[in-house]
Please model this.
Amino acid sequence: MDPRGEDLIRLVLDMTPGWHPNMRKLFALADPGSCFPIDIRTSVPIAPWKSSNTTLLGDAIHTMTPGQGVGANTALRDAALLCRQLVAASIGGQLAGWSLLDYSAAKAAVIHLTRCVAVELGERGVRVNSVSPGPILTGLFGKAAGMDAAQADDGASVLEPVFVSRLQSWQPIHRAGAAGDVAPVLVWLASDAAVFVNGQNLAVDGGITAGRPASVSAADRAAWRRHSGRRVDDPVTAERSVSC
Model:
């Protein structure tokens, strides 16, 4: 049986008597010339295979109908699941004062959850790691600065001078972080190159969690010396500086 056109529309209506009237009206108004059958087949489920560092997404692994982008949608859901294994943390989970209390506490929990899940799943061949971005200049900051939400992603770059100025006392690498700084780290964690990395939190923050820029600390010491009345080149001061 290979119904076509109006025969196929009648068949669909006969099979959907309990569907919403609006849906059935769409079926009834369909163009008969555009209606054709598609054979859909299923397969017997197979046993799971051993986990590895390579995976398949969407209809490359799930048998899907060839219409309405179902395979692509399933690929997106698979990608979301994969991303949850590469947990997004934040330097706010390691350093207090960089964000609101509840946000920092939640991110600290995410980092420790990463470790807990890593030791649970590591024996099954599943690696779980987290990435803690520092201040990354994205549309999020643009929206916080009052930009129109539709323009914030493209227009956030205008904030870069202020961004860099505010970070220069805290971030050793003196430039604004970008999404392109974080993405390669995620790709590396998901690759075979990181096959022995598990339960780790990688900070992509220009060195903020490592410590303040050396030049800032040096300027502070010079200010202390000036305040104490000693010259910067005073032999006693220099000796104490070396001993520190």
